[in-house]
Specification:
Number of helices: 2
Bound molecules: D-sorbitol-6-phosphate, zinc ion
Distance between the termini: 56 Å
Radius of gyration: 17 Å
Shape: globular
Order of helices and strands: EEEHEEEEEEEEEEEEHEE
Largest sheet: 6 strands, antiparallel
């Protein structure tokens, strides 16, 4: 007897899939500490509390080594010139890697190893990126439309948000004359 479900169905028009077991969303107020310009965050939150991203996940559970499939949608937007992005995390199980697949939109994947090596990858629809073991990962929406990406990861990988929360990634992505540029993260003392 196979465990169920064996498949989910992705809807390209909606940028979503069914069925899914988990749904979560992050609003600007949930992510306020992420952005470098705290005055701009406070000002924005006086107006409203926009949805920054949501994600759905479906664990495919067997009796042995299990994978989860997830889809994240990052809405377009900026605070203090910094683009909307995911919180970003290491896996609790540091040795567990992940695959990200950009389905819609324009963006950037930020990677930083435990040893502090930083790398960014420009994303267009169709880019498939490997997140190596021991590497923190964050996705930034640098476009004017929604950014949708799929993720495949081990069910027991876990999210460690604390390590990234301490100082963020080595670089942040900001808009300069309408273009996305990477600059040193001021919170990292660079
Ligand atoms: C899980 C995977 C994704 C993220 C999702 C939200 O390992 O990397 O499903 O959880 O993109 O990002 P974050 O950083 O808020 O968990
Ligand atoms: Zn992950």
């Amino acid at each position: 007897m196979f465990p169920l479900p064996l498949s989910v169905q992705f809807d390209f028009a909606r940028g979503s899939f069914t069925p899914f077991e988990h749904y979560s969303e992050r609003r600007l107020s949930d992510l306020a500490d992420l952005f470098h310009d705290q005055a701009a965050v406070r000002k924005a939150l006086k107006r409203d509390d926009p949805l920054v991203y949501d994600w759905r996940a479906q664990p495919f559970v067997t009796s042995e080594s299990d994978l989860t499939f997830g889809v994240t949608r990052i809405y377009p937007g900026q605070v203090g010139g910094e683009y909307f992005m995911t919180r970003g995390h290491f896996h609790v199980q540091r040795a567990m890697p992940e695959i990200y697949f950009c389905l819609q939109g324009q963006g950037m994947l930020l990677l930083e190893s435990e040893a502090g090596a930083f790398q960014s990858v420009a994303w267009t629809p169709g880019t498939v990126s490997h997140i190596p073991p021991h590497t923190a990962h964050r996705v930034v929406n640098t476009g004017e439309a929604i950014l949708v990406f799929a993720a495949v990861y081990h069910l027991s990988a876990g999210h460690d948000y604390q390590t990234v929360a301490k100082g963020g990634f080595a670089q942040i992505v900001v808009a300069r004359e309408g273009k996305a540029v990477l600059v040193a993260n001021p919170r990292r003392g660079g």
